[in-house]
């Protein structure tokens, strides 16, 4: 979908059916790129996501002196730098890519140098204070260049002779990316008389499955993180990241949620290929939620399939571990028999936009009845919806979620459809291929 289009009209569709292979996971792609860049040896990353957020990471690593070679078919060869980037001075523009800003901030701060990290205006509104405070406790030099607690940031050399403490504390209730970033960076610390660095969570951890992705990938690169309990992590010192040789990037489980929901709302079956029962991504649990609500779900080693099953139920759904995929539940809730309440979604407020506010505002345009609070959203079933033009707030997930409204018998117009390029270029083309009995064709405004 061209990023120059201002709006895309989606007529009602009677059915969704088919199969598709999804692009690679953003979370895995950016973590794997960074770890491969820091490792000893060369790593081939297959099925890497080709989207804006991953391009920002690739471009940043290239600026830092890492050699990346495109092999075709979204496969890349990364020549690792052995734990220290060749370039010790750089200005890195990272758009609105949290999966690039947070880990690069931590890694560069631990290594030290002369770096400036910045992004688009929304990135400068997304908090990073919890990570920076942890880095300060490690005697790293990270300064705010504008508003305290937010990017842009300046990173400098660490104080000479300042030893890394053996314990560091960090909050876990704002973004799991802060902990993931810290864990990846701590593995770069030399032993210096200590065997490990222990991370203590001072608050409960949200989105724990995303941290599991981080520790899983760290282990693939030879660094095993211990978890003595739910509040502690131990990262070994004096080890090196080593290339696993070849690593296949799973398809994106968050993106799968839209097509699985399409299979339920549009009858199905719809099968997503590239992610299955053994996925390391927590968002595969979205399929379990759909099944509990009445959908018919089938799993394979490399696929998940969804179709309409029993009458769809509402109820309260704890979304703590599936915050991104949970957005899709706000749309399927419109077809439920009873109200649906999504709880533990406070992290939505510090994402690409304030997603609780955005979702409530745009659902109301459809004449849906919605209630919201600091960390919850309640959506009432809709006997009938009205056609509406949906603002997307430069948020890829808003655009993809609201495309599903066309499967509820209602025409919907998506503003700024090109915002999906952040994680899923070609989303609307893929969505259209699954739709049967479309009443009228797509139309666009440039």
Explain the overall architecture.
This protein has two domains: 7-23 and 250-445, Enolpyruvate transferase domain (UDP-n-acetylglucosamine1-carboxyvinyl-transferase, Chain, Alpha-beta prism); 26-232, Enolpyruvate transferase domain (UDP-n-acetylglucosamine1-carboxyvinyl-transferase, Chain), CATH 3.65.10. 29% of the residues lie in helices and 26% in strands. The protein has helices at 26-38, 52-63, 98-111, 129-137, 176-186, 208-220, 253-265, 285-293, 326-332, 355-365, 396-403, 427-434; strands at 7-10, 13-21, 42-46, 67-72, 75-79, 89-93, 114-118, 141-144, 153-156, 167-170, 196-201, 226-229, 232-236, 246-248, 267-273, 296-299, 303-307, 315-318, 340-343, 370-372, 376-379, 388-390, 412-415, 435-438, 443-445. A five-stranded mixed sheet has the order 16-17-15-2-24. Helix 9 packs parallel to helix 11 (396-403). The termini are close together.
Taken from the alpha-carbon principal axes, the silhouette is globular
Top-tier CATH class of the largest domain: Alpha Beta
According to CATH, the fold-level topology of the largest domain is UDP-n-acetylglucosamine1-carboxyvinyl-transferase, Chain
CATH superfamily of the largest domain: Enolpyruvate transferase domain
**Mean pLDDT across all amino acids:** 95
Helical element count?
A: 12
Q: Whole-Å distance between the termini?
A: 11 Å
């Amino acid at each position: 979908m061209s990023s120059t289009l201002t709006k895309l009209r989606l007529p009602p569709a009677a059915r969704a059916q088919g199969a598709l292979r999804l692009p690679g996971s953003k979370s895995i792609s950016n973590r794997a790129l960074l770890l491969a860049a820091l490792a000893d040896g060369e790593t081939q990353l297959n099925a890497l996501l080709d989207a804006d957020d991953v391009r920002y990471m690739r471009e940043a690593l290239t600026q830092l002196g890492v050699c990346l070679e495109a092999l075709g078919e979204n496969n890349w060869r990364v020549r690792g730098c052995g734990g220290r980037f060749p370039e010790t001075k750089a200005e890195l523009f990272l758009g609105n890519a949290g999966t690039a800003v947070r880990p690069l901030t931590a890694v560069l701060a631990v290594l030290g140098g002369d770096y400036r990290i910045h992004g688009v205006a929304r990135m400068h509104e997304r908090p990073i204070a919890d990570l920076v405070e942890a880095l300060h406790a490690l005697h790293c030099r990270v300064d705010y260049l504008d508003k305290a607690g937010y990017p842009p940031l300046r990173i400098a050399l660490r104080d000479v002779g300042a030893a890394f403490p053996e314990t560091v504390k960090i909050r876990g209730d704002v973004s799991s990316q802060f902990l993931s970033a810290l864990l990846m960076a701590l593995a770069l610390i030399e032993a210096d008389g200590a065997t490990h660095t222990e991370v203590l969570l001072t608050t409960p951890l949200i989105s724990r499955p995303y941290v599991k992705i981080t520790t899983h990938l760290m282990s693939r690169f030879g660094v095993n993180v211990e978890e003595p309990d739910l509040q502690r992590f131990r990262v070994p010192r004096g080890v090196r990241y080593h290339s696993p040789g070849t690593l296949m990037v799973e398809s994106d489980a968050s993106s799968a949620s839209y097509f699985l929901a399409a299979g339920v709302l549009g009858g199905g079956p719809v099968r997503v290929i590239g992610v299955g029962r053994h996925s390391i991504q927590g968002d595969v649990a979205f399929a379990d939620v759909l099944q509990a609500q009445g959908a018919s779900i089938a799993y394979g080693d490399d696929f998940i399939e969804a179709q309409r099953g029993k009458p769809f139920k509402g109820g309260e759904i704890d979304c703590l571990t599936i915050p991104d995929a949970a957005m899709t539940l706000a749309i399927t809730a419109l077809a439920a028999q009873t109200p649906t309440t999504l709880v533990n979604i406070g992290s939505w407020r510090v994402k690409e936009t304030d997603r609780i506010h955005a979702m409530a505002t745009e659902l109301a345009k459809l004449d849906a009845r919605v209630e919201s609070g600091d960390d919850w959203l309640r959506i009432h079933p809709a006997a009938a919806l009205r056609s509406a033009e949906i603002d997307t707030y430069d948020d890829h997930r808003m655009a993809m979620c609201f495309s599903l409204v066309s499967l509820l018998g209602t025409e919907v117009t998506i503003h700024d459809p090109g915002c999906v390029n952040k994680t899923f270029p070609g989303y609307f083309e893929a969505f259209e291929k699954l739709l049967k009995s479309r009443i009228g064709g797509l139309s666009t405004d440039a």
